[in-house]
User: What shape does this take?
Amino acid sequence: MHQGRGEDDAAMECYRQAIRANPGMAEAHCNLGNILRERLDLAAAIAQYDAGLTVAPDIAALHANKGVALHELGRFDDALVSYDRALALDPEDAECRRNRAMTLLLLGRLAEGWPAYEARWRTARFKGQDRGGKTPRWTAAAKPGARVLVRAEQGFGDTIQFARYAALLAAADQHVILECPAILRRLMTSLDGVIQVVEQGDDRLPGHDYQIPLMSLPAAFATDLATIPADVPYLRASDRDRADWRRRLDKLAGPRIGIVWKGSPDHPRDRVRSPGLAPLLPLLGLSGATLVSLQMGGGADLAAHGADAVVDITGDLGDFAATAALVECLDLVVTCDTAVGHLA
Assistant: This one.
């Protein structure tokens, strides 16, 4: 009850009391381990999972959750062992399959990882996001000249990173229509291989023969480390936007360093990914440098830290095409956010 209400301290105390009363209560060990893992006390979390496994080695959730903690510690091979044990006990655990796929990808085992990543569509987070409907999924066996609707998914950074696969579809004699969030649409019109870009959420989609989620393309092309599309740049800022930013930045001392200190607050691991502004402020001490904020909605953070010396022109960044042009005019970008990182 406490854990469901977000009262983690009270929940932890209840689990500890339950374990003192009954050390063999595997569920209490598992739940306590989950809270510790969320708090990034990973060694303590693993100790709880192991305690549970000592008395109940056939509980799949203990193996699966231990795998997540091992992954967070960077012990990827050990994480795979735990995931495999969990799946041997519960082969239908889609979340465990997705987590295992992420570990495979981080290990560079792309030929295994990308097909396994399709398990995401059966997890609670992604189950309602597959918008393919009755249109057939694109495969490499599709007829030449087909119209393929590629649907962006997940975050802005994911869309920017994997948009490179549009050129591979075009090279396979496919006519590519890309569906993406409105804030990315103008930038994506510069993408090699795309004949049309439509706004996500617009029900008036152009006719198409096939559809495929953007991040399913690596599996469809059997991507491995040797075949990652690397023809860069595949996105381009407009000459007009670039000229406007150069004119505005000319008066600033160099080097001009763009900074981003937090990603999307909706990301489940945002507190791990977003360090905040404070760790970047020492950059203000660099001789002759100017810090330029690329952090949307970052004005309150700048004010709270008294960082008046940071140039904040994000009010004029109407979309990612404008951000791309600004980034191109900077000397360096320091970012924790993947969207700006992939632009740079």
The first helix runs from residue 8 to 21.
